[in-house]
């Protein structure tokens, strides 16, 4: 995956130096998820979650390759140990089941084995530039192996990918370097490979592009992974450059012609199969209604996303233990997915229209275990699109990943945002865990839910100095963060899977408090805008949009109770909506007096 952050910005624990609102003190002593939290906390073992991360971190995991498949089987083994029964052998009475789905791949699976680059001196001596094992991300996906012993070839530099640039350089039989500006987003290698290798006969391609937030001058050997086109005709390779490798090669080119010795080794597996694990705890009363979790397995990082896999498999183990002991009885089904990012979740939603109708909530666990002191990231809940994705101001901030400004027609009013934020705040209470939220950006397994008009959000960490780089290894993972994230995810699902009238009214009251807090925050911000000459009408419209969003979000709480809302719950919804509307009217009127 991807991507400091909020609604207003939320923090619990250490607030030194942070401009934030501490909502922990305002949270009632008894919340809608407290009973579930009391059961989950003693059982959730951070060491077990960390063990899974450590196992996956051994591999560069791309669909169909040995590391990906081994990771999938590791998850399946953990499920069996927790009491899940393989679906094909399960009895009708078995509530805990799992299956491994297999999908033929259209292209061979790819796995890197080795790569190294050295400068060849006048006397034939070689000076190493970079290579495995330090830079296991350097070799682009779909790169082929060089002949045994490697190749020696001249290096030529390009500053652009266009006809004019290639007209100045004969690249056939040579190696090509595209020098993008430092701080640029990764990319360009795929296009460079297509133009230089496929069209013009170069042997291989190098490119540099590192976003500023990765601090390339600090992390001088970091490389982000990327890919090139699968090309059986030319069988070349592509490599990304670290800041240090770029400096070395450019320095050598300034001194005169450069010859490189390059060795690459990779493995292609034809007729590969993409694997997905689907585990379920069948609901006892409304089994066709589902809370769906997803954590993608592919990518080579420990935080991205071995950590999400680790957090989720431990959550599944704890849930299974509680159900088997009779301490929890989810009335709705809990579904757990592990597979390929976006595709596995999208497939689960789209394969079966009847199943899709029953999917009520979706949650993605992606980069859930970051050691925040080392990575620079913090825990985030990426919200469904709300007005903060239109008017991003005050303590609301997009991450360095970035998000487009949305329009009002893209809003998705729902209680899920504040409900999950509330569960994170429950878990954070009494600890030093920092909880934040960010406006919608997209890019992970929550997006297929939203595309299908299902509520979906993301648990993750950002900004991360090691994002998508070969520095994202086990030493950057915190077992405590894995635990906090996993507990937040699990109590969210358990609470809503068995919600009764009391739980529903607790969530409604919680949502009303969040709405009133937001309206007051926006009123204060709008008053400041008006005082500086801004439009009263524009600021009133902003308040109207927030009010409408929360009133509509309160409407969606009608689906919380298993079996449908009681009369008391329906009355609570209407009462909260009226109070939110009254707060909006008061806030609007106050702007006329400024």
Question: Main attributes?
Answer:
disordered N terminus
- The N- to C-terminal Cα distance equals 45 Å
Global outline: globular
Main sheet summary: 9 strands, mixed
Could you list the spans in which at least 5 consecutive residues all have pLDDT below 50? 2-29, 181-187
Strands of the widest sheet, in order across it, are: 1-2-10-12-11-13-16-14-15
Give the number of DSSP strands: 16
Strand proportion, as a percent range, falls in: 15-25%
On the 0 to 100 scale, the average pLDDT is 93
**Helix content class:** 25-40%
How would you classify the helix and strand content by structural class?
alpha/beta
Q: Roughly how many Å is the radius of gyration?
A: 26 Å
**Number of alpha- plus pi-helical segments:** 16
How would the blueprint of this fold be written?
Elements: H1 34-40, H2 46-56, H3 66-82, E1 85-86, E2 96-104, E3 109-120, E4 126-131, E5 151-158, H4 163-167, E6 175-179, H5 189-198, E7 204-208, E8 237-240, H6 243-255, E9 258-269, E10 273-281, E11 286-296, H7 306-325, E12 332-339, H8 343-350, H9 353-357, E13 359-365, H10 372-375, E14 378-382, H11 416-428, E15 436-438, H12 447-451, E16 456-462, H13 479-497, H14 501-531, H15 536-556, H16 567-592
């Amino acid at each position: 995956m991807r991507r400091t952050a909020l609604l207003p910005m939320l923090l619990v624990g250490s607030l030194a130096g942070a401009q934030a609102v501490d909502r922990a003190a305002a949270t009632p002593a008894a919340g809608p998820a407290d009973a579930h939290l009391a059961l989950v906390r003693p059982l959730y073992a951070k060491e077990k979650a960390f063990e899974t991360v450590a196992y996956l971190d051994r591999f560069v995991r791309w669909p169909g390759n040995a590391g990906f498949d081994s990771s999938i089987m590791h998850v399946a083994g953990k499920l069996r140990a927790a009491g899940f029964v393989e679906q094909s052998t399960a009895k009708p009475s078995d509530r805990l089941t799992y299956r491994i789905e297999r999908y033929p791949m259209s292209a061979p699976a790819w796995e890197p084995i080795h790569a190294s680059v050295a400068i060849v001196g006048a006397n034939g001596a070689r000076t190493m530039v970079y290579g495995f094992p330090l830079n296991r991300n350097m070799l682009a996906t779909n790169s082929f192996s060089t002949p045994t012993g490697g190749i020696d070839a001249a290096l030529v530099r390009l500053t652009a990918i266009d006809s004019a640039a290639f007209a100045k350089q004969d690249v056939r039989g040579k190696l090509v370097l595209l020098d993008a500006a430092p701080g640029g987003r990764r990319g360009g290698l795929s296009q460079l490979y297509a133009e230089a290798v496929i069209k013009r006969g170069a042997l291989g391609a190098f490119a540099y592009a590192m976003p500023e937030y990765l601090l390339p001058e600090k992390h001088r050997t970091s490389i982000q992974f990327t890919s090139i086109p699968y090309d059986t005709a030319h069988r070349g390779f592509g490599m990304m450059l670290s800041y240090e490798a770029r400096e070395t090669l450019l320095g050598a080119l300034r001194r005169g012609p450069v010859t490189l010795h390059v060795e690459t080794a990779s493995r292609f597996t034809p007729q590969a199969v993409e694997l997905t694990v689907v585990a379920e705890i069948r609901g006892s009363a409304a089994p066709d209604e589902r809370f769906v979790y997803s954590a993608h397995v592919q990518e080579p990082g420990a935080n991205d996303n071995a950590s999400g896999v680790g957090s989720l498999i431990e959550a599944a183990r704890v849930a299974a233990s509680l159900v088997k002991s009779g301490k929890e009885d989810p009335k709705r089904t809990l579904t757990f997915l592990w597979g390929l990012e976006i595709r596995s979740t999208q497939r689960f939603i789209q394969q079966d229209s009847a199943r899709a109708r029953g999917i009520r909530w979706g949650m993605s666990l992606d980069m859930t275990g970051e050691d925040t002191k080392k990575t620079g990231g913090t825990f985030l809940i990426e919200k469904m699109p709300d007005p903060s994705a239109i008017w991003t101001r005050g303590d609301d901030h997009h991450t360095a990943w970035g998000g487009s400004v949305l329009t009002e027609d893209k809003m998705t009013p729902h209680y899920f945002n504040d409900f999950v934020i509330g569960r994170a705040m429950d878990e954070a209470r009494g600890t030093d865990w920092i909880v934040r939220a960010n406006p919608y950006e997209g890019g992970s397994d929550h997006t297929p839910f939203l595309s299908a008009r299902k509520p979906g959000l993301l648990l993750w960490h950002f900004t991360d100095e090691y994002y998508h780089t070969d520095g994202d290894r086990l030493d950057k993972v915190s077992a405590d963060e894995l635990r906090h994230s996993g507990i937040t995810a699990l109590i969210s699902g358990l609470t809503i899977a068995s919600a009764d009238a009391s739980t529903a009214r607790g969530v409604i009251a919680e949502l009303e408090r969040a709405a009133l807090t937001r309206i007051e925050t926006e009123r204060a911000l709008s008053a400041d805008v008006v005082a500086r000459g801004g439009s009263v009408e524009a600021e009133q419209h902003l308040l109207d949009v927030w009010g409408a969003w929360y009133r509509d979000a309160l409407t969606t709480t009608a689906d919380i109770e298993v079996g449908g809302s009681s009369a008391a719950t329906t009355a609570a919804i209407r009462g909260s909506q009226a109070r939110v509307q009254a707060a909006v009217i008061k806030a609007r009127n106050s702007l006329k007096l400024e």
